[in-house]
Amino acid sequence: EADIYQTPRYLVIGTGKKITLECSQTMGHDKMYWYQQDPGMELHLIHYSYGVNSTEKGDLSSESTVSRIRTEHFPLTLESARPSHTSQYLCASSEIGDGNYGYTFGSGTRLTVV
Amino acid sequence: GENVEQHPSTLSVQEGDSAVIKCTYSDSASNYFPWYKQELGKGPQLIIDIRSNVGEKKDQRIAVTLNKTAKHFSLHITETQPEDSAVYFCAAHEGGRRALTFGSGTRLQVQP
In whole numbers, what is the pLDDT of chain B averaged over residues? Predict the structure, then answer.
């Protein structure tokens, strides 16, 4: 049973539209992450957060933005979607603790921009 | 920063055989090594992890071994079953670093 929820699961949208992918967790985790997963399977970190009002860009440059106003919520926004944004987006969370770095992932949002 | 290499990228075994997936890491400061299983249409799920003060850990049919000197760690699945078919990811964490570094994934296919 998932403790981290992503909505929508699937989204098909036209070029130029603004979209927000939702991610919420009920575990009280301080750290949250967004990964982009390409068809070749690899996971690319695009954003992460250590806590409320803390956001950082990841290893892969992304035109998306994130916010962290509440501990449990970490939405990702694309102001103007393009076909190159078509991908699977995975949200994850973890505790901040010495030696405890395991992630819990959501089920993902598969985005298609036409 | 950390770099994790994972091999093979695809692996096909017969049901009942063993499967081994290997990863190497670059940063000797890494101290936590989880393995994730991703089934079709789902997010990755943690299946086993090991910390640098332990050489081996087992959980039923899966085991992970760690060789700190050589900087590599492996996932072993014994008596494979069709439901083991999935993509498996290894990862490493340096402790102070912001996020896990993932390997590139291994697609395991267990033939019935």
Answer: 93
pLDDT in tens, A60-91: 888 999 999 999 999 999 999 999 999 999 99
Comparing A97 with A79, the larger pLDDT belongs to A79
A1-20 b/e with 16+ CB inside 10 Å = b? eeebebeeeebebeeeeebe
Q: What is the pLDDT of residue A40?
A: 75
Q: Would you state the pLDDT for residue A61?
A: 81
A33 close to B (CB below 8 A): yes
Nearest CB to A102: which of B34, B87, B95? B34
Contact B89, B103 (CB under 8 A): yes
Gyration radius from chain B CA atoms:
13
Q: CA dist A16 to A10, A28, A84, A110, Å?
A: 18, 35, 12, 17
Q: Of the candidates A17, A88, A107, which has an alpha carbon nearest to the alpha carbon of residue A46?
A: A88
Least Cα distance to A91 among A1, A13, A8, A15 occurs for A8
Cβ of A42 under 8 Å from any chain B Cβ? yes
Q: Is the dihedral of CA A91, A38, B23, B109 positive or negative?
A: positive
Angle at A83 between CA A82 and CA A84, to 5 degrees: 90
Residue A36: predicted pLDDT = 95
